[in-house]
Amino acid sequence: MQNASPQCDQSAPQASSDTLARGGIAHRVTGVLSLFTSTGTLLCCALPAALGAIAGGAAVSSMVSAFPWLVPLSRHKIWLFIGAGIMIVFTGFITYRPKGQVACSITGGRGCEDAGRFAKVMFWVSLSVYAIGAFMAYAIVPILRLFSS
Prior knowledge:
This protein is mainly alpha-helical. It has one domain (21-148). Helix content is 79%, strand content 0%. Helix 4 (77-96) runs antiparallel to helix 6. The longest helix has 39 residues, at 17-55.
């Protein structure tokens, strides 16, 4: 007997719940990874610059002595920004690509809005953190030099 519900498209290929779970996990994993990498840019570049501007060089030197891994991280900030940028672009592609209707047609639309909302929030938070880190790493020094002269 055919299901005549308008929510279910019988012509669409049916996916297993395992496939649906992996799709939801992929959205969450890429969102968390992009947030993680963009936070790395914030820690390597924005935090020491802001701390140095507010509290001075002594605060930065005590922070570097407490967290010695910041020095090699800041030496390789170009690679850190490239990796974080690639991850954020990948997350944006996964989040905003045209979505197939298979998962939503099977579940009747439940869960699609929640997963999409979570992925979009993670994407925009990651992008904001990345932009703050890039501003502090590359733009703040030329701006301060412009105003000091």
